[in-house]
Amino acid sequence: MTAPAHNKHNNMARTVLTDPVHFLAFGFGTGLAPFAPGTFGSIPGVLLFWLTLDFGLYVQLGVGVALAISGIWLCGESARRIGVHDHGGIVWDEITGMYLTLLVAPFSITGWVLAFALFRVMDIVKPWPIRDLDHRLGGGLGIMLDDLVAALYAAVVLGLYRWLMI
Length: 166
Prior knowledge:
- With 166 residues, this protein is mostly helical.
- The chain has eight helices and no strands.
- The termini are far apart.
């Protein structure tokens, strides 16, 4: 890294790690990963889902809804403060999308790995209408909605997988 790039990264890290809004929006710092921040940012979604396994489906659905609703404000506010819409380091939307995708994943290592891979592929490739949503909507809703639709697509594929495996 060149000196200016290194200083810019250090300044961003300092901002993220000292501001609660950025700290959450950047996935507890995982969004600061130098490459694939969305992939690293999806990991807390897996950990959170694992922590809520024993709470039951209704509580997990409530957690998912709370993540999504809070993410609209959180991601929008973080983007506003940074001055960049949908900054690559803002990964609360990935945390939420991953968590919601796991709601329909088979409870197995294979099921969770498949859920992770499908969500990441849908989020990266952005099949229609995800790309349009990503470009047309501003603020926190725009940041969150494309990942929520990516989670929906991944969930549909997981549902088909479960149906075919029965």
